[in-house]
Structure formats: C-alpha cells, structure tokens
Amino acid sequence: MSTSTENILSVSMIVIGDEILNGRTTDLNGSWLSKFLFKKGLELKSLRFIRDNIEEINNALTAAMDESDVIITSGGIGPTVDDKTKITLANFFGKKLIERNDIADIVTENYLRFGRIWARESNFYHFFPEDFIGIKNPKGLAPGIGYYSPDRKLVMSAPGVPREFMAMVDEEFYPLIKKYFGGRLKENFQTVIRTQGVPEEKIFFELCPNLWSQLEIFGKVSSLPHTIGIDIVVSYQGNSEIHKEKNEQIKKLIMSTPIAENVWQWGNTPVNELVLQKAKNKKVTFGFAESCSGGLTSSKITDLSGSSEVFFGSIISYDNSIKVKVLGVNPETIKNFGAVSIETAKEMAEGALKVLKTDYAVSTTGIAGPTGGTAEKPVGMVAIGYASKNKSGAFLFQFPGDRIRLKERFSDKALLTLLELME
Amino acid sequence: MSTSTENILSVSMIVIGDEILNGRTTDLNGSWLSKFLFKKGLELKSLRFIRDNIEEINNALTAAMDESDVIITSGGIGPTVDDKTKITLANFFGKKLIERNDIADIVTENYLRFGRIWARESNFYHFFPEDFIGIKNPKGLAPGIGYYSPDRKLVMSAPGVPREFMAMVDEEFYPLIKKYFGGRLKENFQTVIRTQGVPEEKIFFELCPNLWSQLEIFGKVSSLPHTIGIDIVVSYQGNSEIHKEKNEQIKKLIMSTPIAENVWQWGNTPVNELVLQKAKNKKVTFGFAESCSGGLTSSKITDLSGSSEVFFGSIISYDNSIKVKVLGVNPETIKNFGAVSIETAKEMAEGALKVLKTDYAVSTTGIAGPTGGTAEKPVGMVAIGYASKNKSGAFLFQFPGDRIRLKERFSDKALLTLLELME
C-alpha cells in the first residue's frame, strides 16, 4: 500500500442487519458503494457487516469514527421493532429523540412521492434525534439520518433496501460529503490490463518475473483472477492527463513482454458492454445458441439498457431435440461427434444465424457439471461456435470451477468470441 | 436480539484485499461463509472487509479476537508481493517465519494434485510461522494458515479465490473447529414464511398489527423484502423436534391471519429449486419464451445440476421478429395489443409449448427500462403467459426497481407461475 492514500477522504461502511450474516440475503449495497466511492475519489477504508444489536453497532461506530472521516450505515431504519439504528445513533452521540416537524415534512413528502398520505400516528419516523440532519428518501418512505459531529466526522444512515440505499447515497449523501469535505476530494485512477489464457503464477514467475516491480513504478499493483483470465491493475491518484500518460507508458511496457499476445483489453469495460458498443458502432445484429451456458450469455447482454437495438434473441437448446428441431443441427453430427464437440457447436451457430436472421451468432455447448463429465470430455470442457455471413467455425476450451463458475466462464468466453468475430 | 446467542460459538471473518473495497470484484466468500456457518450452528458475528495493509489487518485481528472464538480470514496468502497475511499473522502472535519441511510437504502435495512439481526456490510457501498449523489446499497451491492461541482463539487463513476458500473452509477449517470447540457446537433453525403481493408495511401495520409480537414468542423475528414479496423469518436454537413443532405452531398462527392467502411457500427453498423438484416429481418437461427477462429465467433453472432432465430449452425472443417467426405469435396481436400485453404473452407461451414440445411453457414480455416506458405501460410492467396441453393464459403485473432488479422479479414471477401451473 503506497502512502498516496493518506490524504484521501476515507469512508467506513457499516451494514447493519442479521439477514446477511445468517446467510439469508446477499449484500448488494457494499459492493455497489465500493464502486461508487472509487469513482468519486474516496477511499472505502473498511466494510463491516454486523448484527442489529446495540452493542455491536456502538463498537463498529467507535472503530469507524476512529479510522475514517465519513461513516455510512445501511439497514435498521425502517418502521419495524427490529430497526435499532436511529435510537442507537442518538444515544451514541448523547442526543434525545424528539418529535420533529421538519422530519414530519420529509416523511410526508416521501409518502406523497408514492401517492400516499402519511399519518403521524402510523409510525415513529418523525421521532428523530435533536441536532441530526433529516435526509430525503428518493425511492422509499423512511427518512435518512445524518449527523456532523463536533470532531468533524460525518455519519449518515440509509435504508438497507438496495434501490433506496443507492439513490440516497448518490442523491443525498454525496452532496453532504461535498458540503462538509469538498476541498479534500481527489480523483483515483486505475490502469487495467485484462489477459486471458495464462495462469497468474505463470505470468509473474515464469514469463515476466520483473513485471510486478516494473509496474510498481507507476502505482500500486494488484493481480486479479477473473472468469476468463488475469486482470493486472495499477492504481494511482492524479488527473486525466497523468492517467493518459501512465496508460501509454504501461501499455508500452506490457507490449515488450511475452504476455502482450494474451491481452484482450486495455481497459476495464465488462465484456458484455464491449459487445454491445461494438455491435451498435458497426450497426450489426447478433444472437446466441446456448446449451451449457443455459441463458446466461443472453442474460448478460439483456442486463444492458439498449441491447434490444442489436440483440435479436437466442435459442436455448438445452435438450438435443431443440438443437435438431429448432437449430437444424444434423442428428448424425451429434451421434458421431457428441453434443459437446466443435462440429455440433459450429452447426448450432450456423442454425442460430439462420433462425434468428442476425448478422452474427455464437453458440455454447459444454459440460457444466458436476455430473456428465467423462475422461475424454471432462467437466469444464466447452465448444464455442461462431457464424456470420462469410464464415463459421468453433473452438474447444477447458475451464476449471464449479457449475456456477463454469457457466460464467462459458458465457464470458462466448461474448469474447463474439467480440473478436465482429472485429 | 435474544440472549440465546450468548453461548453459541462465534466466528468473525476478515476479508483482506483491496480489490473488493475499490470495487474491482464482488465478494463471494463472505456471503457463502454466512450460509455455511448458519447451517453448522455457528454465529457469524461480524464480517470485515479491509485493505491489504499491515496496520489494518492488525486492528481487525484485535477486534475480531476480542469478540469471537474463531477468526477466519480470506486473501493475501498467495505467492505475490502484495500478499501480506502470513507475515502479519506471524508478527501479530510474535512468531518467527522459519523454513518448515512439514509445510514443504503440504505444498508439494498441493502441486502434485495439479500434476505439477514444486521447486523450493520457486516461491516462499514453505517459509511459515513457527508453531502455526499448515493446512492443505484441496483446490489450489497456497497452503492455508492456522493458529490456536494460548487464550483459546482459533485463527485460520484461506486464499481469496472462492473455489479455494470454500473447499478449504469446508474440508479443513471446519474439522479444526470441531477439534478445538466440538463441545460447543449447537444447531440453528429458522421458520421461513414467504409471501407475495403485500408490502412489508401493510402486513405489519395494517393487516396483522399483532403478528410481530405473536411471532416473537417463538424466537427472533425478521422481515426481509425479496424479489417478489416479503419473507418473514423466525430464528431459534434447538433440535429438529423443536423445529418441527415450532414450524407447525407458526403455520397455524399465520393461517389465522389475513396474509394466509399471500403465502407461496412455508419454507426457504429458492423458487428455481422448487420448480425443478416439482417437474422431476411429476415427470414433466418445460421451457420458456423470454422477452424482458432476457434469458435470466432459463439461466436460473440451468444453475441447478440435473435441470437437463426436465428443462428442454427456451426461445429468447427479444426482437418482435423472433416472437413472430420462431414462436408463431400473430403479428396482428402485437400490432393491436402491443408486445407487452396479456394477448402477446399468451401466444408466446403457446408458441413455446409447440416449438419446444414440452408439457409446460411460460413466457415473459415486459418493460425492464430505464427507457421504453409509457404512461399506459410504465417501466416494471410485465405480462406473464402460460401454456399446457389443457390451458393457456396470461397475467399482467407491475413491479418496482431498476433494470437488473426488474429482470430478477420478472424471472422469479415466471418461475412462480410455472410452479403454480404444475400443481
């Protein structure tokens, strides 16, 4: 860790609620906040998940106040009895809970946004700690809670419901951070090099043993395994000029190493977004024939707004009968080479091109496991086919991982194949 | 929070690494561990995400040792220079890093499992703190790190790569916990009631104002908003007898309230698993015609091993041309009623049934946003169609949320529709 982070405005997040610690829900707010703060140039110093319990909230607050300028909490501010955040914060800062008309106004406004009338007797939203800041809720009913302490720490609490949390942080908390700490906001930058086809150890111990220390000249270096390869990340502060300059120098360095040919992206755009951008730029359409990826490739594309302009659809041919009847794969091909084969993958892609009437089609057929693998065709094997007006073909790959991870890898590899196909 | 948790063996987890805090990766280990520990009857007391920095690791260790019996860390034990966990743990407990032959044996074995030969000079895996426990890595190369301290705390460190972390916790850490704390392991139970169609506030303030306190007699109560409704959860310790008894009493109580008709599941099985179980039990096949859910419904089914027995495939008809040409929807239907209509949804389901030759088919057509909404058909509106040999039809629903959340809701609602269809 470099010393460059010492002056950055730092944030600690506390996620309050039993449901994540006991495995009932998966957190979305923490991972969203980490991305949000990074872009805004703030450092997320720590992220704590604690139970909805006064003692633990107090301990976490004490530690967070000690290490950071801004403390953001999520959860525990709803109308039910297990929501303890407001009263705990009030006690923590020695403030009384009082009936406040300004908060009642915010609650009334929150309700009105949903076309509803709030009645004071229906809940305790307007009982609020004295001197605390009432915060609008752009996407829900419960008001957010803010407090700027005498020792210049800004504590803010949002609901745990992700859409409410995210809107409140973006539209209400961030302006408050700017109000109290505006002068200290700086920007963070990263240079990201995304590789495929070489394991992490091989990159840094065999192929490029000096790369790590050479990169450290530019900033903090990390190496991150992703679905279809290793991402090398160099982080530093500065401005867009410095970012551009370092980007170029790092690219020059990487191009002089043996892993240059394994780089599939100089940047950090998810592969589904790259596919969508390229298809829109080239004004071409595409679709998939998915077997082992089971709909995930299509789902990754349709996660993106605007995908309907270029993505026509897919045939999920999980059963071989669909491969034959809908995609027109020759039953002899499946009989002779197997459903998981470059021959079948190629015919699936060709069939999808024809049925969907798109400019490009990519297919997946493989073994996601845990059952169904053989010595010859083990779990993790996938054939990816491609087809366009001018050409068609397929490749065979072998990936590690469990079923969920393999579906991720199969679909990302299919998207990468489509990206290369559109070049 | 009830006092029942005081004697439970408690665990604190520390996730070490910059990549999660700066938003580069989304954590999988923490949410997996929370589920794993809950099933095993251990309490995950807290979950901390910190940077790969000696001071912060020390602070987190101090706090975790203070609150829990078992401390699990992930990340920072690989071969690269930014992996600081081992040396930090050694210093924390005042142990020297020494060259250990027993650890070299574990590393050799880890490598052999991948068909590789480990050379001592290739890295520092075998430099290990004196008195520490070397732990096998069932799915990777780096050995895990364990230490049972004089004050009876068990600290264990696994790699951050999810498949390695999960295998090591399951196969190596849990046996160590049993070895040192076996007598204190107890079981946790939950009674889960999953509802749909009524907002949280309406349940607890309007329809059943006494329900919360009535449920508290049985244990700790939580109310958790999920994609298609509110889950009510009652948690308690005990044995399977007590679990069965409380389940029945709680069911009886709920059945006497107005929300009885909104319960879609007495239990906690994900809707995709329920669909798969029911289809297998009834020996029926199914498929989907997905528009707005864009492949996610199919992907949720194919996430499950064994789905190929009953799930034949889907037509992702994102573009209207696919609805017409592949599914056989009458273009007049789309022209007269729109692509998002019960009429189109019904024809999509009927078309899928015919094309896929399955016993059941369910369709989705809606507006995932953020663009494409109108006053008449706003973002979040979805028509879900169904078809079987005997009947077909469609329903119209309106959901809140952003694009990703709406896709989740559309697909879960489609799965629930299929579940009811198979009744």
Strand tally of chain A is: 17
Proportion of beta-strand residues of chain A: 15-25%
CATH topology of the largest domain in chain A: Molybdenum Cofactor Biosythetic Enzyme, Chain A
| Main beta sheet of chain A | 6 strands, mixed
**Bulk shape of chain A:** globular
Termini distance of chain A? 39 Å
Number of helices of chain A: 15
Task: Domain count of chain A, please report it.
Answer: 3
- Category by helix and strand content of chain A: alpha/beta
Radius of gyration of chain A: 26 Å
Low-confidence stretches of chain A: 1-6
Q: What is the C-level CATH assignment of the largest domain in chain A? A: Alpha Beta
Oligomer: homodimer
The largest sheet of chain A has its strands arranged as: 2-1-3-8-7-6
Please estimate the helix content of chain A: 25-40%
What is the CATH superfamily label of the largest domain in chain A?
MoaB/Mog-like domain
Mean pLDDT of chain A: 92
